[in-house]
Design brief:
Layout: E1 11-14, E2 20-24, E3 36-40
Antiparallel strand pairs: 1-2, 2-3
The chain binds FE2/S2 (inorganic) cluster (FES).
The site of FE2/S2 (inorganic) cluster (FES) has 12 residues, from loops.
């Protein structure tokens, strides 16, 4: 039971050298149409902020 997520509960997971993954029941002001799962950029280099576009992968060796 420890590894199962509670339905509807908001969870924020910080992915190592990557985005913040948010799952569950949440609302982002200005983006109310996004539900269930989103990846927010933490590297500052996404061309689609505030969302991750995968650019962080090219920064891993810097
Ligand atoms: S964290 Fe993925 S582009 Fe910034």
């Amino acid at each position: 039971m420890a590894n199962q997520e509670e339905p509807g509960k908001t969870k924020i997971e910080l992915i190592d050298k990557g985005p913040a993954r948010i799952t569950g029941d949440f609302t982002i002001a200005g983006f109310e149409n996004i539900r269930g799962e989103v990846f927010l950029c933490r590297c500052g280099e996404s061309s689609n902020k505030p969302f991750c576009d995968g650019t962080h992968r090219s920064l891993e060796d810097d």
